[in-house]
C-alpha cells in the first residue's frame, strides 16, 4: 500500500551541543536491553545499539532504531533483533510520548531491522517490496541463526515480515519535507528516510560508522553507486544528524565516507587477489590496513565478506584468463 501521512513537528527544548549517546545498561540476567532513547533533533529520537558484533552479552542488539514525533502521531524506524527488543522499544517510546504510532518502517530485510515486529502487530508495518520478499524467504533462517548466537534473548521470537509495501517519494509533512528514498547495494532494496527541513537522515544499512560493513546480500558496485547518489541527494542539506543503522550518530558525512573507503578497498583487494591467483586462505591471511584496525566487528566481518564474495572474483578472473588464451 502507498503511504501518505500528514506529519507535523513535535516540540524540542534542549539547546547547545548534541549530547553523546548514553551507554545501554544491558542486564543479561534479566534479559533487559537497557534501552536509552535520546533526542537528536526536533521531533527525532534514536535508540543506539552496541557498536559490536552479535553476542549474548549485547542481546544481539547492534542496531540503531528510532522514531519521529509529529503532531498526528509517531513513525517508528526499525524494530530490533527480537520480540523482546520490540516490546522494550515500545515501552520506552510510550514512556516518552502519548501520541499514537501511525506507522512502523523496516529499512531493509536483515533480521535486526524487523524481528521486533511482533511487538507492533497492531500497527501498520511497511517496507520496500524487495525487503518484504526477503523477510518472507529468509525469516526462519534468521530466527535460527540469532537463537544460536544469543540464546534466551530470542525466546518467543518469530519472524513477522512487514505487510505494507512502501512507495518511495515525498510525504506530506506539514511545514517540512520528509522523503523516502529507495537505493540498493547493501541489499536489493535499501530504504533511506530524509527530513530535508530538520536535516536528519536515517540511512539504514547503506552507512556504517566505526564498524566494518556487513555484506550477506551486498553488491559492492551498486552499493558504491548508492553512496554517491545519497551524497548528491544530501548536497545543500543542513545536516543535523546522520543515523547509520550500525555505529554512532554524527552531524556529518564521515560514516558515509568510512563506508565508501572500506567498500572501495575491499573490492580492490578481492580483484587484485583473484588476478594474482591467490586462494581463499591466502586472501584471509593478508594484513588489513591500519586505518581499519580499530573498527568494530574485526576480523569477523572481513572473514565473512571474503568467504562470501571472493569466489565470484575468482570465477571472473579465470574467465578473463580463459578468454585471452590462444586457441
Automatic annotation (TrEMBL):
Protein name: Quinoprotein relay system zinc metallohydrolase 1
The keyword Ribosomal protein appears for this protein: no
Signal peptide: 1-17
GO molecular function: hydrolase activity
Keywords recorded for this protein, A-Z: Hydrolase, Signal
PANTHER family: ACYL-COENZYME A THIOESTERASE MBLAC2 (PTHR42951:SF4), METALLO-BETA-LACTAMASE DOMAIN-CONTAINING (PTHR42951)
Organism whose genome encodes this protein: Malikia spinosa
Transmembrane annotation, as ranges: none
UniProt record similarity statement: Belongs to the metallo-beta-lactamase superfamily. Class-B beta-lactamase family.
